[in-house]
Fold each of these.
Amino acid sequence: MTVPLLVVDDSSFARKQVIRALPKGWDVEVSQASNGEQALELIKAGKGDVVLLDLTMPVMDGFAVLEEIKARDLPAVVIVISGDIQPEAEARVMKLGALAFIKKPLDSEQLHQVLSDFGILSV
Amino acid sequence: MSTDVLDEELRDCFQELSNVAVGRAADLLARLLNNFVIMPIPVVNLLERAELSMALSAIADASSVSAVCQGFTGSKIAGEALLIFNDASFQDMAELTQFKGEITEQIELELLMDIANILIGACLKGLAEQIDVSFSQGQPYLLGQHINIEELLNRNGSTWQRLLTIELPYKLEGREVNCDLLLLFTEDSLAILRNKMSYLLE
Amino acid sequence: MNTDYTGLAEFHWLIEVMQTVDVGVLVLDLEYQITAWNGFMENNSGIDSADALGRSLFDVFDDLSVEWFKHKADTVIQLRNRAFTTWEQRAYVFKFRNNRPITGVTEYMYQNCTFIPVIGTTGKVQNLAVIVYDVTDIATSKLELKAANDRLAQLSRTDGLTQLYNRAYWEEMLSNEFKRQKRHAHDLSLIMFDIDHFKKVNDTYGHQVGDDVIRAVAEEVRHNSRNTDIAGRYGGEEFALLLIDSDAENALLFAERLRKAIENRRVSTPEGELQVTVSLGVAPWKESFHHYNAWIEAADKALYTSKDEGRNRSTLSK
């Protein structure tokens, strides 16, 4: 089954890097958002069962997106890919229900590992 | 290749590289101060000479800020980092570094240099590693103390017309600490940076 | 064999360069014991490397602040990030005498230092290198320049005859206080005063005596005012005083004290002793002043009232 995957980052360069790092042959339908508000719209529209989320963004940041997903109980599995690498940032997103925290610059092997560890690849 | 404009793709790429570099600096600062750092969103621009003069004059006018400048160079990329620190931040900074006693001018300088060392050092290192170069840093200068900013602008004999600037406004959560880090790259560096980026952009 | 020899030769000249380079190179282990100490350090400290190596840095430099140094060093080691110190922040880290009989103008060497984390083969920081730059020449010339500029600035705001502030600078101070007052009002009063019949003094005794009189009045102003008060020579024989933290009552008391002091003062002239009096106008700060000029006008008006009512008196503005 094709997985609706949403890549959220204010930088299109960063989004490209993330998309390029996805496992080959993984059956996904990729959507993109450049801020939190767009991301929530797309999640509500069923475009983001799996979300790869940046934290530092204008308009609405990644922390706020996680809060909304939690508060509205939206059906999205979130992996944070962040340039903010403070331990406190990681602790906060994990508390807000993120599945995993990956530091930028993105290492594709680490992303694959996380995706397979949580059984997302086999969905 | 024209250096007159910063196309959107390149600007975006700079911004993302800066974002990662800034994240490292924020992490170090947070560890030093034991306080969460609100990550700034980097602002990347081409700045005209006159605009820089205006920005620096604004610093000179505000008696309530301190500034540190530090040059860097490596792999034909060169520039200067400028840290502008709001003096109102010293009280909170002193508390965070567990400093007890009266905040003299001497202590303010120590705090300023501590912050400058971390933010400038870590940002430059973070940027350099991503584009696979390494920078050497010159000695830092305190602006305004023994160097008059206006004099500096007047005697600046260089002929550059525009600079690539990356602006990073840092804040500490729950604290009155405000500082802006500006990374300025010379016009000559721009072509080299463009080159380094092009292979990141494929 | 050949490569070994080349390696050795290279090592030899590297050491030779480090030994002779004109900056200090000091390497410490994580217990602050000295593991490298180059010629610059030897020559300036007077301590041979044989005596320095293996010893604690704090034993070798017993006046080095342990707390300060450790704070810098720990930050560098833990964060794996370079740190710089400048002479402006701390004149020197290592106390080296500046022993130049001719060109030496300071007692100690001014220094900039760079702290560098040295990463070992294990990928961990194993040593701390400190590079010491002698910046005595730069520091002293900057300090001299600053002293000269300060002196110039002081000259440009002082009235030569009285050593009080000159009019331009006094007005600048008034303007600043006025702005502060608009944000945050305190008790603040302005006094304008001038010397009665000064023209007659000049005409009768000459300008020399006129100057002596002005100087004598300025001296009384200095004796009677506090450090915080802002006193200036406003014009020829006119003076202006800004009294910090003084309400109308206090300002009037002050004006009267000053008036009496000047009345009691005698200025000696070739024709005997001379007595002068002054007329004063006192204007406490009012919310309704929109510009500091209005404040000066109010004090001036009170001053004219003093003149009209017979001079040698103080008047409070209405």
Amino acid sequence: MIPLVGPTRRRQTLRHRLLRLAERATTPLLPADYLDLFHPLRPGADLRGRIIAIQPETADAATIVIQPGADWAGHVPGQYVRIGVDVDGVRQWRAYSLTHGPRADGHISVTVKAVPDGLVSSHLVRAARPGTLIHLEQAAGEFMLPTDGGRFLFVTAGSGITPVIGMLRNLFPVTDSGVVRLVRSAGYDIVVVHLAPSEPDSIFSAHLRELDAAGAIRLVAHYTDVHGSLDVDDLDELVPDLAERGTLACGPAGLLEALRRHHDRRNLTLRTEQFRAPRVAVGEGGTVTFGRSGTEVVADGATPILDAAESAGVLMPSGCRMGICYGCVLPLSSGSVRDLRTGEITTATPGETAGRGVPVQTCISAAAGTCELDH
Amino acid sequence: MTVLQKKTDNPIAHLTAEDIEQLGVELDAIRQSVIEARGADDAAYIRRVIDAQRKLELGSRAVLLVSLFPPAWILGTAGLAVAKIIENMEIGHNVLHGQWDWMRDPKIHSTTWEWDHASPAEQWKHAHNELHHNYTNVIGKDNDLGYGIMRVDEDQPWVPAFLAQPLWNFLNACFFEYAIAAYDLELGRNLRSKKRRRSPEFRGLAKQVLAKVRKQMTKDYLLHPALSGPSFVTTLGANATANLIRNLWAHSVIMCGHFPEGVQTFERRSIEGETHGEWYLRQMLGSANISGSKAMHFMTGNLSHQIEHHLFPDLPSKRYAEIAPQVEALFDRYGLKYTTGSLPRQVASAWKKVIRLSLPNDFGRRRVAEVQTMRDARNEMAGAAAAA
């Protein structure tokens, strides 16, 4: 670290002092809590975004255009962003691929397909309104193309196309006058094998066809209702030069697993992306793991986690032991618990649940399958 | 429930054990209906209240920058007092109860919230949520009951020191937030013995309270007055007045919750082995509501629905008004008294009790008896005179 001297240091300490003074004037809140009332997207604020537009893509998919807060650090096409949205008043976090390259207006966009039991996806596609504030984290993910070109195969299924669209849009922007061929994109030779149940359901199918027609990519669209389900061994025929390409795949776990085996047999490189973390089955009782100590406690479905943990010798915070005082709340980092009073299930999924986990009252919650508490 | 059973008019004599358990089942159903219904509207409500409260506080403090002008002083002080009341009652108290934890918003959560109050949130949550709400109106266990300095039940032996309890109660009201901090710290009990006084746990907690009090005081009595420049003294006065108004208001509302006539108190032994239904019943008998306008309910942080709040302390406050008719109907069906009255009436009732209990139990009766004796004697004399 370079030691600060002279005016820089004085400026820093002055700034620091003013900040401390402002904190003392707003205690017990922070100055930011008041600034947030007027300018939630300002520099220095928690990262948030405002929904600017919701554009329908298919009957059950839409692109959400978001103006990110001033501290948004940008992204590389193929990366995803975690978004916190309030659905029925409850904050839910999900990861979505950014479906574009860097934009001149500084906005970002994600494309969401409403899945039947998808709380957040259905909300974003059908209920969300422009103007709504949402919560963001910085873009993340290693699913991206090398910047120096090459020969690639994308295998995508369903909404697995979204990170790929982000990369393709960045390489081959589509304007009113057609696909623009940029110099920096000349070094890429891309084949896209895209699987979808049917063509009307397929997000970005028109976009992919347009890129294919312009010669920017070669599209192999595979619709289950027309072509039947795809056997990964068919890839050798569909893409004869498979061995000369690096494969990037995004889709459900089953497809990625099959591809992994297929590529391993042929000694080919494969990079994959999967969003939805495997969910732990909800059951009656289960093993509760205390993440910090590593202690495991087997609890039945009728015993509060607090009681089970204490009988196993875990030091637990507790209070009224009847669900009133919230003195026993601990973050559930994965798995499900059942509220013994209401039967309500609370589930935490790593990658989707914010912070250390969903806070749950251990005194009235029983394990509903295997779960882990951050304690 | 021995205290009740001892009474000639035991309010629960007509209830069987099955009745009490059935009562619990019905209350659980009311609770469940609210949990199922709560959603985006509730979330929007608390965010709106927080938003409005912060803007009102900012605006009031801005007006007070020129508090040298009397209209600015009046406007700013009134605004700040209202903002502080809302912050403590409809927002702070209820957020710290976990009423909004279901939103999973880390900024509006019982584990992260800190309030404009002398007692640090963590200590208050323990004293209030764990002790007061669990041991509601149990003499010797519920510190909110007389705050350990007052006589709150005829069964407590009277000593001459209780003569001063109306005065203590008034001072308690004026400095309510500091009094609360002291109760949460169990200051009286902890200062009494050297061992407790020196325990690292107590010292740690006391240090937290002092740090919080210092921050609160620096803000209201130094920093904001200083920012007002020539209005230093008037702003300091305005902030002190706003805090005083908040303290008096909060004290009055809270006194109405468990003090008015008709509210029952319980013996320590009576809660041993208490069932879920019996716990509900104790909350029902140990709390009193305040009736009035929507604005009044809001300014009390919906503690005017004290009965509903004590039955369901973690349901969103705005829902209490909605379930109150169901709860009242349930009281009726089980032949229980739903204690309620207007704010002036309940405050007067609570004060009357404080004053009555500052005197020995037989004080009034002794006087009545004396008057009666004198009257009898006079009548006798008159009778004798007539006979003569």
